[in-house]
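To whoever is on call:

I kicked off a structure prediction for a single chain this morning and the downstream step that reads the tokens threw a length-mismatch warning. I double-checked the sequence; it's 208 residues and nothing unusual in it as far as I can see. Pasting both halves so you can look.
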Amino acid sequence: FQVVGIDEGIAAVKQARQAFERDSNPAWMVAASVHAQYLVIKGRHREAAALFDEVSGVVQEVADPEVFRSAMFYAGWCQMLMRDPIEATRLFTIGMERTGLSPHQRERNFECLALTELLAGDLSRAKALAAEHRVIPTFRSSIAFREGNWEAAIEMHLAVLEWARKTGHRWDEANTLSILFENVFVTGDLERATEILRQALSAYEPSD
């Protein structure tokens, strides 16, 4: 996933699901949810929805709280990516409310809630969550941009971009470039925005 090998990722999660199912391990639901996430990234939303429907029909009965949280997390992540912050917030929230989860396990959901609250228009709530919980720089920069701190937001994205390129995280590279383009475009620097867009488009393999 991080190297944007989505097709390879789909093949891997399919194999993982089969292995878990052979052992009657409920972790197959996590594998199916990750599979759906990859399908959403590929734009195959109907197939992804079918997988999420399959998982949601059985995951409520699972005893392992982390399996339930993970299934809800991936469903919420996809709704967040498709800009449905209300449904994403609902899924993140019910996922982390399951009894038996540690504070550490819940942190990942709080992190995404900071962005969904921002997308829903509640800047104050997003800032409060970012102040109370670990939130990745990409989400923090979005909060800064919404506050009007455009240059600070751009600088945070540039730092993430440098890290992504050094570590080979091509998803973060492509995602950061896409957001950077939007931010720089708003500042009116069209020449710089055009160059960032060129880099963003070249960050993807044709198959992805």
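Update from on-call: the warning came from a stale cache, not from the record. Cleared it. Sanity check on the structure: The CA atoms of residues 185 and 191 lie 9 Å apart.
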